[in-house]
Amino acid sequence: MHTAEGSVSLEAIVETAVSELPLRIRRAQRTIINEGSAHVVVLLEDYAAVRVTRDSFTANKLRRRQQLVDSIPSDLGLTLPRSLGPVVEIEGHAAVATEFVSGAPCPAGEGEPEELQRLLEAVSSIDPGPLQSMLNEPLSFCGGANWYSVQIEEVIPRIDQQFRNLAREAIAALAHLEPEEQVFSHGDLGGYNVMWHRGQATGILDWDLSSMSDRSTDLASLGVWHGWEKLSKIAGADQVTRAGIRRNTFRLQQLGFLIIAHRPESEVSAAIGRANSWIAENLA
């Protein structure tokens, strides 16, 4: 099994997280199914999944994020990774064993507009009132209230000179986006964070970026994964325009996260390359 950053092994962290679970779960075959920039996810057959933070930056947030997931009403109509045990902490890492969420990600470019609309409405209709203390401020992962300063001072200087003006324009457009009605927002509603079965969305993972925002935040994520042309069938022209403004900064936001999280330079460099390529292909 791979080793998490630091001296403690991933295996030891998982053992701690599942130590109070039934024997059949503790003995289940373990498979690493995701190694993202913030977490490693270890699947225990179809019994459970253990989410392990890769560093203290994300470890400090896991407990509140899991509390949020556990507090979302069960009548949402979608399966969520609710807790099977407590959040545990060991040598700067945090981990939690959660319920198994069945299904598979929808292939990129697929997904019927009607189902995408149902998914979007299900999330945006979550009552944020009882959850306010567990929600992030918008763009918290890449600076929160200071996101613009992070972009201007840390991100833009790392972008290729030929693309910096375009990057500044994209950031300025987001900074000057007119306020609109705020609803519950997942923050990354697409790709491998949504499980599907037979053409229907059945579960949602990774609620780390949940906040109050307008509908264009989750709309943008859906468009990037399922096909931008589908958005006009599930939202009005103004919302699609707002979603496009958000989409134009996604690669820059991701780079900002890696910088302020002090991720390894290899990860930062790779993100710089992705941002440059995206700007060249979509904004230049």
Q: Structural class of the secondary elements?
A: alpha+beta
Q: Helicity range of the residues? A: 25-40%
Q: Please state the average pLDDT score.
A: 94
Helical segment tally? Answer: 10
Order of helices and strands: HHEEEHEEEHHHEEEEHHHH
* Radius of gyration, CA atoms, in whole angstroms: 19 Å
Strand content: 15-25%
The main pleated sheet reads as: 5 strands, antiparallel
CATH homolog superfamily of the largest domain:
Aminoglycoside phosphotransferase (APH), C-terminal lobe
- Domain count: the total is 2
| CATH architectural label of the largest domain | Alpha-Beta Complex
Number of strands: 10
Shape: globular
What is the end-to-end distance? 43 Å
Query: What is the CATH topology assignment of the largest domain?
Result: Aminoglycoside 3'-phosphotransferase, Chain: A, domain 2
Strand order of the largest sheet: 1-2-3-5-4
Q: Kindly provide the name of the CATH class of the largest domain.
A: Alpha Beta
Can you describe what's shown?
It contains 10 helices and 10 strands. A hairpin with a 2-residue loop joins strand 8 and strand 9 (200-204). The relative contact order is 0.13. The model has no long low-confidence stretch (mean pLDDT 94). A 5-stranded antiparallel β-sheet has the order 1-2-3-5-4, sandwiched between helices. It has a 3-stranded antiparallel β-sheet with strand order 6-8-9, covered by helices on one side. Helix 5 (147-155) packs across helix 9 (250-260) and helix 9 (250-260) runs antiparallel to helix 10 (265-282). The protein has helices spanning 10-17, 23-26, 56-71, 113-124, 147-155, 164-175, 216-226, 237-247, 250-260, 265-282, and strands spanning 30-35, 39-44, 48-53, 88-90, 93-99, 104-105, 183-185, 194-197, 200-204, 211-213.
